[in-house]
Amino acid sequence: MRRTRSSAHGGRHELGQNFLQHRPTIDRMVRLVAATDGPILEIGCGDGALTRPLARLGRDLLAIDIDEHRVAGLRRTLPHVRVRRDDVMRVRLDRPVIVSNVPFHLTTPILRRLLSAPRWRDAVLLTQWEVARKRAGVGGRTMLTAQTAPWFTFALHGRVPAQAFRPVPSVDGGILTINRRQTPLIAPADRASYQRFVRAVFTGRGRGMAQILAAATGQSARRSHRALSDVGVRPAALPRDLDPHQWAALWRMTRP
Q1: Tally of domains within the chain
Q2: Residue 100: which domain range?
Q3: 172 labelled ligand-binding
Q4: Of 123, 148, 180, at which residue does a domain stop?
Q5: Which of 2-6, 84-88, 124-128 has the weakest average pLDDT?
Q6: Is 44 annotated as a binding residue?
């Protein structure tokens, strides 16, 4: 790999840059983007491994990176693409389609910011494997996924070996898509109330959902058992086992 001067923000390791080199992964991500429509925002474009094939889709494309030297290089090689130096934690996420080989050390803050932004519609992301599988609900849902699932759907599209990146990270990657639901399961105005409920359940005490729900909501054990039965959840289940529709229904049943 060619040497580049350090960015004003630090070297490649300080920037969390693991550059994608794997053609099958690049092709798969571009196909997923091609199935969407509208202007595209690419976050962390790096050397342009994704930018170049995305540009061939013929759609309005804005690519950003915090490394000024790589931005300058892409501007020279892709003069027809708008490439801008910007920070992923500050850029406006207001384009319909978001694409990113997510810097692994910023995965959680980027996902939290993305899932709180109101305007984008479809996201195609390359994240750490464990993050991708957990967000997609493989092996059980996390609190963050449960808190956002009434407004978004998550899907896993394959594992990416660590050797697909340069420098090689210590973990594999995974391709994750996030799509905003056309009809949310809960009104956006109720989002804060719902998310407090999910947090209370995930952090509540008990050996199963019946005990946890009763403790988290202050309801009687009998009423908690009835609510779980009505939405098809076993009393011994755990919060990670519930699907988005069950979470939404429980919230409605147990809210004051």
Answers
A1: 2
A2: 19-180
A3: no
A4: 180
A5: 2-6
A6: yes
